[in-house]
Design a protein that fits this description.
Helix content is about 35%, strand content about 20%. It is built from 20 helices and 26 strands.
C-alpha cells in the first residue's frame, strides 16, 4: 500500500497522548495523536496476520508507524501456555515516531496466557479486550491463575472489555457450511474488525487481501469476510464501546513522495535486486533456511523476472560455497543466514577474502550462543563479523538502522563489495527484519551507478614485451584486483585458498610475500571510502550517545525525551563498522563521556576503547527484546549527571 505525504516536521517521538471529543451519532469520537496496540494470543490464533493487516491499513491511511512482532522461540509450544504466546505490537501516530512504543495503550488478549504474559507491560488505565470464552478453569490453571482475573478485582486499574469473541464469531458464521472448529479460526478477523472500527481504519485493503488469500476456498473467504464485518458491526452497536478513536495521518512527518509499509527483510530483498540492476549483474542467492533470515530467500525466489536466481542449499556451507562460485562466475553473489550460520560459513568467508571476490554475507542476528533464541533479537555478532575467521582476514561491515534503511544498507554493501572486490558483512537483526515502517520509494535517478567493468584482455607487460593477465594486479586507488570471468580467452588464472604471489596469483610460500599480501588486503579494507559520521549536537553537549544498527530508534527517542526535558546530549550513529569513519576518533575524543547502548555485552564499546583509547561506557541489554525509550532515557540521564 502506498500513500502521499508532504514536507517534514520533526516532533517528539514519545508525545503525550492528547484527546479531543466530538460527537459521531450516538457515540463519541476522541482524537488521539498516537496509539500503541498489542495483539496477543496462541501461535495458532493468527496474531501476526491480524497485526500485519491492521498495520497495512494504518499505512494506507497515512500514519507514521513502527511494529514489533514477537514470536515464541518454540516451534509449537503447547496451546494456552506462556511459552506459546505470540504477540504483535503496533505504534502509530500523526507525527514522526521511531519505536514500537514502550507500553501498549490497548491489549487484545485472546486467552489467559496472553493476558498473563503481557499485563506487566500495560500502564494503569490501559484498555484490555479479552476473549472471555477462553477463560475456562482449566485454561486459567494452566498459567497459574487461582481465580479468574476478570472477576477477582486484579484488573480494576484498567479499562476492561470482556468480549466473547469465539461465541460471537461462531454465531456470525452459523449460515456457512463450517464446523465449529473451522468457524472459531476466524475469531482473529472478528477482533480485527472490532479494532478497525475502534480506530477508524480503512477496510478495503483487508477485504481485498482475504479475497485473494482464500480465492481457491470461497467458503473460507466468505466466512472470514463475514467475521471481519461482524467485528466492525459489534463495535458500532455494543454499549461496551461507547467511544471510538481517530489518529490523523502524519501529513507533516515525511518528505514528499510515494510511501509504502515495508519490513526490514523485504527492504533488504528489494535493495539486493536494485543493486544487481544498478550493477547490470545477475543476482545469485545461495542460502540455507534459518530464522530470522529465511524471508529474504522466500522473497527473492519470487523475482526471477529481474534476473534473480535462488538456490536453497542442503546446509550453510553449501549455500556460501555456491554463492562464492557465482561471484567467480560474474554474479552479484549473496548468502543469507543468522549467527550460527555465520560460524559455519567462516572458512568460506576466509576463502573469499583470499580470492578477493565480491560477496555479500547477510547476517540477520538473533539471540545466541549456539541455537540460542531463534525468534528473539540481539546484536551480538559484531565481534564475530570483525574477527571470526582464521588468519588476518579483514571484512567490511555495514549495519542498517531501521527497517526501511535495510534497502540502502544492501545497496551500500553491494557498492563496497563490487568496487573493492571483497566479501562484505551486513549486520541486520530480528527486530529490524520483522519490524516495519513507512518507506519512501526512491526515484531511479537517486540510485548509485554500480556498473562493473570485467577485464577483457591482458593487463601487464613482462620485461620481454609479452602481454599477460595478472589476476592480482591492483587498481592503485582501491587496491581491488581485476575481475575476469572464467572462459574469457587469454585470461586463465589460478584460484584457491593457498597464499598468492603478488601480481601473478601463483601459489607462494615466501614469507616476505605473505607479509606483503596480508598488509595489502588490510590496507584495501582500511582505504574503503565511507562517509564521515554525522553528529547531532545542537547545544554543544558534554555527553555523546553512540550507537549502531537497530538501537537507532530507541536511542533517538530517548534523546528527544531528554532534550524536551531541557537536557543537553549529543547523538551519533554508525552505519560502517569496518572501516570506521575517518573522523570517528576525533568525534569520540571531543566529549567528556561517551555512552554506547548495545544489545550485547559491550562489543562496539570494546572496539572503540581499543582503537581510540576512549573510556566509553557500555549500557547493555541481552533479553531478546529491543531497548525501551524510557529505559534508555533514564540511563542516559544518569550518565549526564554522573
Amino acid at each position: 500500500m502506498t500513500s502521499q505525504v508532504s514536507s517534514p516536521a520533526e516532533q517528539a517521538d514519545e508525545a503525550v497522548v492528547g484527546e479531543q471529543r466530538k460527537p459521531a451519532g450516538t457515540k463519541d469520537v476522541r482524537r488521539l495523536d498516537r496509539v500503541i496496540i498489542r495483539f496477543a494470543g496462541d501461535s495458532g490464533d493468527g496474531m501476526q496476520l491480524t497485526g500485519d493487516r491492521f498495520t497495512s491499513e494504518t499505512a494506507t491511511f497515512g500514519n507514521d508507524l513502527s511494529t514489533l512482532p514477537n514470536f515464541p522461540a518454540e516451534i509449537r509450544a503447547p496451546a494456552g501456555t506462556l511459552p506459546g504466546v505470540s504477540s504483535f505490537q503496533l505504534h502509530f501516530a500523526d507525527h514522526d515516531i521511531l519505536t514500537p512504543g514502550d507500553a501498549p495503550n490497548v491489549l487484545v488478549a485472546m486467552n489467559p496466557a496472553a493476558l498473563k504474559a503481557n499485563i506487566a507491560d500495560l500502564p494503569r488505565g490501559a484498555e484490555i479486550i479479552v476473549n472471555t470464552d477462553e477463560f475456562t478453569k482449566r485454561a486459567m490453571q494452566k498459567v497459574g491463575y487461582p481465580a479468574s482475573p476478570l472477576e477477582d478485582g486484579s484488573l480494576d486499574g484498567y479499562s476492561l472489555h470482556p468480549v466473547p469473541l469465539t461465541t460471537l464469531t461462531v454465531e456470525a458464521l452459523k449460515e456457512f457450511d463450517l464446523s465449529r472448529k473451522e468457524a472459531e479460526r476466524s475469531k482473529n478477523m472478528f477482533a480485527l474488525g472490532l479494532l478497525s472500527w475502534m480506530y477508524h481504519r480503512p477496510t478495503a485493503g483487508t477485504e481485498r487481501f482475504l479475497k485473494t488469500k482464500f480465492a481457491r476456498k470461497p467458503e473460507i473467504m466468505k466466512a472470514n469476510l463475514a467475521a471481519f464485518h461482524a467485528g466492525w458491526n459489534f463495535g458500532e452497536t455494543t454499549e461496551d464501546f461507547a467511544v471510538s478513536y481517530e489518529v490523523a495521518p502524519a501529513a507533516t512527518a515525511f518528505p514528499t513522495g510515494t510511501y509504502r509499509n515495508i519490513s526490514g527483510n523485504l527492504a533488504l530483498s528489494y535493495g539486493l535486486i536494485t543493486a544487481s540492476r544498478q550493477a547490470d549483474l545477475p543476482l545469485f542467492l545461495g542460502s540455507y533456511p534459518i530464522t530470522p533470515a529465511s524471508d529474504i530467500l522466500h522473497e527473492l525466489s519470487r523475482h526471477k523476472n529481474f534476473g534473480v536466481r535462488t538456490f536453497q542449499a542442503e546446509d550453510e556451507i553449501a549455500g556460501i560455497g555456491a554463492a562464492l562460485g557465482a561471484a567467480f562466475g560474474g554474479s552479484l553473489a549473496v548468502t543469507t543466514t543468522s549467527g550460527p550460520g555465520v560460524a559455519l560459513k567462516s572458512e568460506t568467508i576466509g576463502l573469499a577474502v583470499s580470492l578477493e571476490l565480491p560477496l555479500l554475507v547477510i547476517d540477520i542476528q538473533r539471540g545466541g550462543p549456539s541455537t540460542g533464541l531463534p525468534t528473539k533479537t540481539e546484536q551480538a555478532d559484531l565481534l564475530q563479523a570483525m574477527f571470526g575467521r582464521n588468519g588476518e582476514a579483514p571484512v567490511p561491515i555495514v549495519a542498517p538502522k531501521t527497517p526501511g534503511d535495510c534497502f540502502d544498507a544492501a545497496v551500500e554493501a553491494a557498492r563496497i563489495a563490487l568496487a573493492y572486490r571483497t566479501p562484505v558483512m551486513l549486520l541486520s537483526d530480528g527486530y529490524l527484519a520483522n519490524g516495519s515502517e513507512p518507506w519512501r520509494i526512491p526515484d531511479i535517478d537517486e540510485l548509485p551507478d554500480l556498473t562493473v567493468q570485467f577485464t577483457q584482455g591482458p593487463n601487464h607487460t613482462l620485461d620481454d614485451g609479452t602481454e599477460v593477465f595478472w589476476p592480482y594486479k591492483r587498481d592503485p586507488q582501491t587496491l581491488a584486483r581485476p575481475w575476469a570471468i572464467p572462459g574469457t580467452p587469454g585470461l586463465e588464472h589460478r584460484i584457491g585458498g593457498i597464499e598468492k604471489q603478488d601480481g601473478t596469483g601463483n601459489i607462494s610460500y615466501d614469507p616476505a610475500n605473505h607479509d606483503f599480501m596480508v598488509r595489502t588486503r588490510q590496507a584495501k579494507i582500511d582505504g574503503i571510502d565511507v562517509p564521515d559520521i554525522e553528529v547531532d549536537d545542537p547545544h554543544e553537549a558534554h555527553t555523546l550517545v553512540l550507537g549502531w544498527g537497530s538501537t537507532y530508534g530507541p536511542i533517538t527517542a530517548a534523546v528527544r525525551r531528554l532534550r524536551a526535558a531541557g537536557e543537553s546530549i549529543a547523538q551519533a550513529h554508525l552505519r560502517h563498522l569496518n572501516p570506521f569513519p575517518r573522523n570517528l576518533g576525533t568525534v569520540v575524543k571531543r566529549y567528556d563521556k561517551v555512552v554506547i547502548p548495545e544489545m550485547n555485552l559491550g562489543q562496539l564499546a570494546t572496539l572503540i576503547r581499543a582503537k581510540y583509547l576512549v573510556d566509553a561506557h557500555s549500557y547493555n541489554q541481552v533479553n531478546g527484546m529491543p531497548f525501551k525509550a524510557e529505559q534508555l532515557a533514564t540511563a542516559l540521564k544518569e550518565a549526564i549527571d554522573g
